[in-house]
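HUMAN:
Just now I want nothing more than another pair of eyes on a protein record. I would be glad if you read both lines and explained how they fit together. I have put the entry right below:
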Amino acid sequence: MQEEINMYLDDAKEQMDKAVKHTVLEFNKIRAGKPTASMFDGVMVDYYGTLTPLAQVANISIPDVKTVMIKPWEKSMVAEITRAIRDSNLGFSPMGEADLVRINVPALSGERRQELVKRAKTEAEEGKIGIRNVRKNTNNALRAIDGGPEDLIKGAESRVQTLTDDYTKKIDELMEAKEKDITTV
């Protein structure tokens, strides 16, 4: 009985951990001031008929705080990478050169910073919803255990709630840090 309860609790912890990691990945895609290579994680390039992540067809470097240089491993991919970045709605205007793509990253305006904060808050809320769904599913599984002593089930449910509170707090802390990162000029 206790083993089954512990199994559900371990599974809940693992699922909540995944929700936090997903939120961190989504936060990394949101630009805050200076550019990073992870901003391009969601960009998919048509590589000979197959959609491929940009990082798998090119090297992304940040030579200074206002420039991103993308050097494809095949020169023929410059036009395709330029198109993929333009179509990705990242807000950049890539310039294809002979053997690389150069992106001048403009400074963020106050209005754009507020939009990014709003987007980060949406991602944080999505993470919290994921955690609450794990809590609901785990509690339902705990209640479905046949012949389980009620006090054991109630204790397990309170541990699930403690996990939920801890992971929700982690997301709140990540959100605070991201908001500070975005709004700092």
